[in-house]
Amino acid sequence: MMLSAEDNFSELFSAHDESPQQYAQRLTAILQRVAFLAPHRVPLADALGQVLAEPIDAALDSPSFDNSQMDGYVLTAADALSDAREFTVGHDIPAGFQGSVDVCDRVVHPIMTGAPIPQGFSAVVPVERSQAVDSEVDAQGFVAEGGRVRLPDVEPGTFVRTVGEDIRRGTRLVDAGTVLGAVHLGVLAGQGIGEVLVHRRPRVLVYTGGEEVQADSDSLQAGKIYDANAPLLTGLLAADKITEVTARRITDDAEEFQGILATDSATYSPDLVVTCGGISAGRYEVVRNALNALAKKGEADCWFGHISQQPGGPQGVSVLSLTEQRIPVISLPGNPVSTLVTYTRAVRVALNAVYFLGVTDQPVTAQLSTTDTVKGLDAKTQFRRGTTTMGFLPDGAAVLTAEIKGGAGSHLLHAASESNCLIELEPGREYKNKDAVRIWYLPD
Ligand SMILES: Nc1nc2c(c(=O)[nH]1)N[C@H]1C(S)=C(S)[C@@H](COP(=O)(O)OP(=O)(O)OC[C@H]3O[C@@H](n4cnc5c(N)ncnc54)[C@H](O)[C@@H]3O)O[C@H]1N2
Ligand code: MOO
């Protein structure tokens, strides 16, 4: 299925037979219809790591005036190259100097780094290349006003930073979509820019649970498990700089969950809801049952089914219309590794496209490192967990290798914690040592 902007909204929730790639596209298409967040202005000091929503062009030349690159003496062009090398010392020109300076034959001025080059002057000789002539020098080596100094000849323009050398007015400083780093902030601050328009990140409500998930961290009761998914999912979102996240625990009671969704939608106004578990084929599938019931009442559009990947086969996506704002709900399978795989392969790809997270969500090619032949599944894309290493070929060229860690099961979270990527095995393919594989770096 190829999706386009013209796709009918309800078609997006009909039965689908999908690859992971097609599912990522469908999630994106659904979010694009309901999840627009207007960019907002933030103080530059808060913009580190945020994604710029509009291009910024330079309003000023930088430097905005010719200035000295050294602490030293400033000379006129004629004095820079004249045969006679001894000069009278005039008054100081410190950084920030705003006065005017008379141009007098054979008079040089002590000038400090960053100070404006006065009209009629042309070159700077660093103080350490000067020699006092019958005059005292201060601790920095400067001769006092009225004293005499010997300077070597210099080319006009030496140690002068000229207007616009770094930035010409009108130059594109930062493109829209750039993740703002410290250097960008420096450049923008240097232009006197105090606020920037950045993309907003969604406020997310996360639901985990099921009857077997113990509500507290007291000693584990028979048949119960601790909640691994809430910290896992909150951490994955935080790695993508989505930090306005509220995690809530639910039981297996689908009716109760419908009520919780209604109350929480009003209380938290989430831009997005993510659920974990309760969506497959059992009797107590709280998430699927609750959303299907809401759909029957016309309060949601929803789809639950399978995509052709392992782990993470069972999936669900819905849009709630409980409040005026339509809220997308992404329902991930309960097995923690299935949540990790689906987030990495599909959810963050969709969130990145819709909310402009500025994360690198695309796969790269690596060389599989394996002692045995590795076979994928017949009709599903399989995502194994693995580690990457940068190695070198005999000719010195760099090569990225990837090695599978642990088994294929979706409950094997510990092996995943020792991995940094997913290794994608295409349906029906067999891989030998050194075969090319696609890998997806885990969010970190
Ligand atoms: N008859 C079928 N049964 C199952 C199918 C199927 O196609 N037909 N699919 C299997 C696959 S594959 C997966 S994946 C799971 C997905 O099931 P759910 O999304 O409904 O998830 P749960 O049943 O609620 O939980 C699955 C598993 O994960 C554990 N879990 C749940 N929440 C947490 C948590 N917060 N922290 C740690 N572990 C959690 C839960 O105890 C289960 O063991 O369905 C299969 N079944
Ligand atoms: O699709 Mo499930 O996540 O394999 O265990």
Note down, in words, how this protein is organized.
The chain has 444 residues and is an alpha+beta fold. It has four domains: 188 residues, MoaB/Mog-like domain (Molybdenum Cofactor Biosythetic Enzyme, Chain A, 3-Layer(aba) Sandwich), CATH 3.40.980.10; 55 residues, Molybdopterin biosynthesis moea protein, domain 2 (Alpha-Beta Complex); 95 residues, Molybdopterin biosynthesis moeA protein, domain 3 (Beta Complex); 78 residues, Beta-clip (Beta Barrel), CATH 2.40.340. It is built from eight helices and 26 strands. The strands form seven sheets. The chain has a six-stranded mixed β-sheet. A hairpin with a 6-residue loop joins strand 18 and strand 19. Bound molecules: ligand LQZAQKY5 and molybdate ion. Ligand LQZAQKY5 binds next to helix 7.
Outline of the structure:
It is an enzyme of class 2 (transferase). With 444 residues, this protein is an alpha+beta fold.
Q: Which key features would you list for this structure?
A:
444 residues, alpha+beta, Molybdenum Cofactor Biosythetic Enzyme, Chain A, Molybdopterin biosynthesis moea protein, domain 2, six-stranded mixed sheet, 20% helix, 27% strand, elongated, binds ligand LQZAQKY5, binds molybdate ion, molybdenum, MoeA-like, metal-binding, transferase, MoeA_C_domain_IV_sf
What's the CATH topology label of the largest domain? Answer: Molybdenum Cofactor Biosythetic Enzyme, Chain A
Content-based structural category: alpha+beta
With helices defined by DSSP (H or I, 4 residues minimum), what is the helix count?
A: 8
- The general outline is elongated
| N-to-C CA distance | 31 Å
Strand order of the largest sheet: 7-4-6-5-9-8
Bound molecules: ligand LQZAQKY5, molybdate ion
User: Percent helix among the residues?
Assistant: 10-25%
Q: Compute the number of strand runs.
A: 26
Secondary-structure arrangement, i.e. CATH architecture of the largest domain:
3-Layer(aba) Sandwich
> Uncertain regions: pLDDT < 50 for 5+ in a row?
none
pLDDT averaged residue by residue: 95
Question: How many domain units?
Answer: 4
User: Biggest sheet: strands, sense, closure?
Assistant: 6 strands, mixed
